Amino acid sequence: MRVSLKWLKELVDVDMPVEQLVDRLDMTGTKVERVIKTGQALDGVVVGQVLVKEQHPNADKLSYCQVDVGAQEPLRIVCGATNFSEGDKVPVALVGATLPGGVTIKRAKLRGLESEGMMCSARELGAGSDASGLLILPKDAPVGASYAEYAGLADTVLELEVTPNRPDCLSMAGVAREVGAVLNRDVRFPQWDLRTSGEPVEKRVSVVVEDPDLCPRYTARLIRGVRIGPSPDWLAERIVAAGARPINNVVDVTNYVLFELGQPLHAFDLATIAAPGGVAKVIVRRANDGERLRTLDGQDRVLSPDMLVIADANGPVALAGVMGGEATEVSERTVDVLLEAASFDRASVSKTSRTLGLLSESSLRFERGVDPELAARASERAAALIAELGGGEVAPGLIDVYPSPVTHRSITLRCGRMNAFLGTAIARDEAAAILRRLGIASEATGEDLACTVPTFRPDLEREVDLYEEVVRIWGMERVPSTLPGGRQRVGGLDASQRIERRIGATMRAAGLNEHIGLAFEDPRRVEACGFELGPDEALVELLNPMSNEQSHLRVSTLTGLLEAVSRNQRRGVSDVHLYEVGRVFRTSSGRKLPKERTVLGAVLSGSWDRQQWYERPRPLDFFDAKGVLEALFESLRIERWRLDAAEHAWLQPGRSADVVVRGEVIGWLGEVAPHVLKTFEVDGAVAAFEVDVRALVRAGGSVARYEEIPRFPAVKLDVALVVPREVAAETVASAIRSFGKPLLADVRLFDVYEDPHGAQQRRLPEGTKSLTFSLEYRAADRTLSEDEVRAVHDRLVERVCAKVGATLRA
Question: What is the pTM of this model?
Answer without folding.
Answer: 0.59
